[in-house]
Design brief:
GO terms for molecular function: 4 iron, 4 sulfur cluster binding; metal ion binding; molybdopterin cofactor binding; oxidoreductase activity. The chain is an alpha/beta fold. The protein folds into 3 domains: 213 residues, Rossmann fold; 170 residues, Dimethylsulfoxide Reductase, domain 2; 126 residues, Beta Barrel (Barwin-like endoglucanases). Helix content is 28%, strand content 17%. It is globular and about 70 Å long. The protein binds ligand MGD (2 copies), iron/sulfur cluster and molybdenum atom.
């Protein structure tokens, strides 16, 4: 028996925790967290532990496929890699020759492994790189830019040293980042208080000191009232505010009417509790983290709500503070050189983005990096501002990640080429013209990643085992396409040369990763203080007034508008995550499926009683002609206006025997929902739909 341990990086979700894989006689047997990684200390979440079941699953794409039937019919022919890559490269070349270089659209899931294929996109001359984020954290990103002038990932969360953490619309113990969970639990053991503001009792609520069961969609009112109380009782950090917040008086005037007493009616939370929270936070300041949220593609005021969160943190002096939200430390901050970038090999493409982000009236204030892919779909449908004819969905399943699959498909009709690059089946892969199957993470290497943090580091993903099927690493796919499209600088045939290129000039060698899989770039953790130049706004301060936003016709401070109450026989559809699954792509994982084969519909006891529904009954949830069956979970601990389900279930693909037909899909209950996007923050407002619930016959 030959046993070895390989350091790598988990790929079961987008957090990418460092791992250690036990390989016995060439078989990946057991995965645990990398014991050398800060915050991880050997631990993993259940999905990370179930990575072996993904690897050894026969129900994943095993070789390249080219469609032979109609789109979505599921008729394929098996292709060799040469044939599939030739096919894609030839189609891309023909489309670009006819419609221009910019007629190719690409979307992915963001993250630290993008450099190589983004260089490919630059090389072929398209400006249309996008990611998934208008269905996820775009409102937070644009709110951070609007308030600080830098992005959401330019501040960290010092959960270990915090004295009070507020989770609003942030399900930290179920929507897992292992290091964050460990750090917060350690912090709580050392006395940190936890406050949870949620529409239902999620797992964090069960561990909280304060739990506020809020009326769905009224968080902005709650936060305005907290700001009002902090000002009214002079609880804020006056020095920090004087030094670092501009136009604070405008904020003071704006919130004058938004008292806790006013907010009580809106939110259902007693005024006294709101005031009490403000006092508790002031006591713990500046070691306070009011988490800005993550999956905030929920309401049309989520952007403004997140802005208030950042402002509250600033008022408590927590920006840059120990135990608060320290400024993110990058390699350059500790005197180290960052990885060399493949993207720098090519100039930024000249053409304008098809989604209009950064240049079109009303879209100039948005973060340009990954654009807004939903708006690029408008361009596919209309041909305006110019046609998009080819689309590569890389690690992205828009047909599940955006509302109303049929509607999204209807927007894609004009595509001449749709390619899915994926390791599992998905609605999008099933609908594609070509499926390019990548090797799951245990079977592939990736480009080296940088992890910013108090001690920035480089981390490497090495393959634990050889590919079982005819699948390839991501770099192999894009190097193969690059070769065919004449991009010599990306024509690599081994990963070592790619790593060498990245490490060039850093003083780090590939061997340096052998010992632990991680190369730390600093000896001691660094806490960067707030100083001149920290905030990248015109005033150099945290800004209440955002001229760029106002230039696009949106107010800096949005007057509160009460959300619509559901009609008498309806409920607001709400959703979230669970610790056992990642989005839609683990339901068919044999181990995780065994633990949680279906989702349930949370419904309030009184409402359920009136409808004659008990826990475990089958109910139908419907909206606008779409209807799905799901089991009920009846509870006192959800707001009566809402029903809730875990996202990612309700699969319909025949190739996924386990997931097929289990549970319901929340995204199908949001008719034409992709068109309901937030002009200020850029994200889709997915929780602005009302569904009917009835006992199933
Ligand atoms: N209604 C509703 N819609 C939602 C959500 C919701 O809660 N409700 N959640 C939203 C959120 S927060 C997000 S982030 C999005 C997520 O949705 P997506 O951005 O689509 O992300 P995933 O479902 O994680 O992955 C998409 C596909 O990529 C494949 N994949 C996974 N890892 C890799 C990899 O390393 N490389 C490649 N090439 N492929 C890989 C998976 O098998 C899967 O088929 O959905 C959003 N949409
Ligand atoms: N296990 C697991 N972990 C994950 C993921 C996963 O799929 N599985 N996905 C990753 C990704 S891509 C993301 S974006 C993050 C998401 O991380 P989070 O955004 O923290 O996770 P969610 O569970 O979607 O939602 C957070 C909470 O918002 C609550 N909520 C819904 N509506 C409202 C409202 O109107 N007001 C308030 N106050 N609360 C509301 C929900 O009940 C839920 O408890 O998780 C990441 N981590
Ligand atoms: S949070 Fe879990 S699934 Fe995500 S990378 Fe970490 S161990 Fe893997
Ligand atoms: Mo997300």
């Amino acid at each position: 028996m030959v046993k070895e341990y390989v350091y790598s990086i988990c790929g079961m979700c987008s957090v990418r925790c460092p791992i250690q894989v036990e390989v016995v006689d060439g078989r990946a047997e057991y995965i645990q967290g990398n014991p050398h990684a800060p915050g991880i200390q050997g631990s993993l979440c259940p999905r990370g532990a179930a990575g072996t079941a993904l690897t050894y699953d026969k129900e994943r794409p095993q070789h390249p496929m080219i469609r032979v039937g109609e789109r979505g019919e599921g008729k394929w022919r098996k292709a060799s890699w040469d044939e599939a890559l030739d096919y894609v490269a030839d189609r891309l070349k023909a489309i670009q020759a006819e419609y221009g270089k910019q007629s190719v659209l690409f979307s992915d899931r963001g993250g630290p492994f993008r450099d190589f294929y983004r260089a490919f996109l630059r090389g072929i001359g398209t400006p249309n790189y996008n990611n998934h984020d208008s269905a996820c954290a775009r409102n937070v990103q644009n709110a951070a830019l609007s308030v600080f002038g830098f992005g959401r990932k330019d501040v960290a969360y010092d959960l270990k040293n915090a004295k009070h953490v507020v989770l609003q619309q942030r399900n930290i113990f179920e929507a897992v980042n292992v290091a964050e969970v460990n750090n917060l639990l350690n912090g709580m053991e050392a006395g940190c208080k936890l406050s949870v503001i949620d529409i239902r009792a999620n797992v964090p609520a069960t561990k909280a000191d304060n739990f506020f069961l809020i009326r769905p969609g009224t968080d902005y009112a709650f936060n305005l009232a907290v700001i009002n109380a902090l000002i009214d009782e002079e609880l804020y950090d006056k020095q920090f505010v004087a030094d670092w917040i501009s136009d604070f008086d405008v904020l003071k005037d704006f919130v004058a009417g938004y008292t806790p007493e006013w907010a009580e009616d809106e939110t259902g939370i007693p005024a006294a509790s709101i005031r009490d929270l403000a006092r508790q936070l002031a006591e713990a300041a500046p070691s306070v983290i009011w988490h800005p949220g993550w999956m905030t593609a929920r309401y049309s005021d989520s952007f403004y709500m997140t802005r208030t969160i950042y402002i509250i943190n600033a008022m408590l002096g927590s920006i840059g503070a120990k135990g608060g939200m320290p400024l993110m430390v990058k390699p350059g901050d500790v005197g180290a050189k960052g990885l060399k970038s493949f993207m720098d090999l090519y100039p930024k493409p000249e053409g304008k983005r098809v989604d209009g982000v950064g240049w079109m009236e009303g879209r100039k204030h948005f973060d340009q990096g990954p654009g807004l892919v939903n708006l690029a779909y408008d361009a596919i449908a209309t041909g305006e501002p110019y046609p998009i004819k080819a689309y590569i969905a890389h690690r992205h399943d828009p047909l599940m990640a955006f509302p109303d699959k049929d509607d999204v498909v209807s927007m894609w009709k004009n595509l001449d080429l749709l390619v899915a690059v994926t390791f599992s089946w998905s609605d999008t892969a099933w609908y594609a013209d070509v499926v390019l199957p990548i090797s799951p993470y245990l079977e592939r290497e990736d480009t080296i990643m940088t992890k910013n943090g108090a001690k920035p580091s480089f981390i490497i993903r090495k393959r634990a085992i050889a590919p079982i099927y005819d699948t390839k690493a991501i770099w192999e796919i894009y190097a193969g396409l690059a070769k065919r499209m004449g991009l010599e600088a990306l024509d690599y045939d081994n990963i070592e040369d790619i790593w060498k290129f990245q490490l060039d000039g850093t003083g780090v060698s590939i061997e340096d990763f052998d010992k632990t899989g991680i190369v730390s770039l600093a000896k001691e953790p660094l806490l960067k203080p707030v100083k001149e130049g920290t905030f990248k706004t015109p005033s150099g301060k945290i800004q209440i007034i955002d001229a760029k936003l106002e230039g696009d016709g949106m107010p800096s401070l949005l007057p509160y508008v009460s959300p619509q109450r559901p009609p008498a026989d309806r409920f607001r559809i709400t959703f979230g995550r669970c610790a056992l699954h990642t989005q839609g792509h683990t339901v068919n994982n044999a181990l995780l499926f065994e633990r949680m084969p279906e989702n349930t519909l949370w419904i309030h006891t009184d409402k359920a009683k009136a409808l004659g529904i008990a826990t475990d009954d089958h109910v139908t949830v419907s909206n606008n002609g779409y209807s799905s069956k799901i089991r009920a979970f009846v509870t006192d601990f959800i707001h009566p206006e809402a029903v809730f389900m875990i996202h990612g279930f309700g699969h319909t693909l025949p190739c996924e025997s386990r997931a097929l037909g289990k549970g319901a899909a929340d995204n199908l209950l949001m008719p034409k929902g992709i068109r309901r996007y937030d002009k200020s923050g850029g994200a889709i407002s997915m929780q602005e739909h009302f569904v009917q619930v009835a006992k199933a016959q």
